[in-house]
């Protein structure tokens, strides 16, 4: 039976742990430098100084913040695993890179490419021929229709809808429930229906 470690003992970590369990993978430890307790769901929580004890394990970064996942991914030298919940529906022509987590009830359709350390959250739908770059977070019940491109580090809010053939730049934020009908530039924060740029994130 495979064993992994999760970097981040948080609420998100609890969900990622459940995904591992759904596929008969054992979570041997949580790694967290600001632990709230010594155990989370009866799994030991240790600091990054103790990573060497788990060097044989693959890791998944179980932290929701896209920026933090990127920083940690550059520091951790262990190999990364990919976790896909057993209830996810994924076309055999989909490509999913290392460190990515696919949560329960999601659907990812044909010829879509998912980058590294991406979060595809509960019941999200990603249609055919989409390209999702590294460190993206697709929130619960978001719908990404066909031929959509999403740049590095962008966050798609819960229940957002992106119509076909749209490009969303890097490190953009799409608000919950937003409907995106035009391309979104890098770092833009977009809310509403139709989506309107309200401000820009700092680089």
TrEMBL record:
InterPro entries: AcTrfase_PglD-like, Hexapep, Hexapep_transf_CS, PglD_N, Trans_hexapeptide_repeat, Trimer_LpxA-like_sf. Pfam families: Hexapep, PglD_N. Residues 3-76 form the PglD N-terminal domain. PROSITE patterns: HEXAPEP_TRANSFERASES. It comes from the Bacteria. Keywords: Acyltransferase, Repeat, Transferase. Belongs to the transferase hexapeptide repeat family. This is Acetyltransferase. It comes from Kordia aestuariivivens.
